[in-house]
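Might I ask for a little of your time on a matter of protein folding? What I wish to show you is a protein chain and, alongside it, a tokenised description of its three-dimensional fold. I should value your view on which stretches of the chain appear to form regular backbone elements. You will find the record immediately after this paragraph:
***
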Amino acid sequence: MRLCIFGTRSFYDNQEASRIIDEEIKNLNPSMIITAGDADGICRLAIEKAKLHSIPCELHFLNRLKYAQGMYHHRSLEVIQSSDFVLFIHNGESKGTKNEIELAKKIGKACKYYKINDEPVFSVTDYETEEFKFDFAV
């Protein structure tokens, strides 16, 4: 299973985000972790967790020459399309992550969403989680 991990760019040092990723890796047992290679926060943490758990990591980078203003959209689209399941860890405000969630909806990708606080220390019960799969039959 190819696991995409996306989320808020300020969560690299967030202990709860770290625990969530470890738990999901244990539960999902992915064969590959896929994320943005040039983003900070959750994407950078996902790369570190892939190393820690000895899981191959597929990284996608911005293509400024080909897409210019749409480079963030296209990178996110490539990452989501190349995965089987998407894990979102979000502060509820980040616009980039909101856009990635909307892309996953359009594609109909199976996802799990965690909303956690920006606070550095809080209880494991202080986040909301939701699993969903978007099915858009036309």
Observations:
- The CA atoms of residues 32 and 56 lie 5 Å apart.
- Residues 2-133 form a domain with the Rossmann fold fold (CATH 3.40.50.11700).
- The longest helix spans residues 15-28.
